[in-house]
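If you are new to this repository, start here. Below is one unmodified record pulled from the training split, so you can see the exact layout before writing a loader.
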Amino acid sequence: MPIVKIRTNRQVSVPKVIFDDLGLKEGDFVEVNRQGSDIVIRPKRLVDLDDTLSPEEEKLVEQGFRQLRRGDSVPWSELRDELDV
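And here is the target side for that same chain:
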């Protein structure tokens, strides 16, 4: 188990083997919590609000899933022609 030193401004380095195993990159975010006397660091992915669905869009997606579960679907070739894509 690697041991690291707390540096100036409370900075701690994540050992390379752990950093690589978790697929972290410079600039990624982590969440830091306390569990009893332990410090727990978890990778976090932040999502831009522009990349999330509005409540109306969520309803449309759910409607689409309901249609798929009922078997209401059309082949992609037919839909592509209808959308002129």
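Two things worth knowing about this chain: The chain has a mean pLDDT of 92. The beta strands are 29-35, 38-44.
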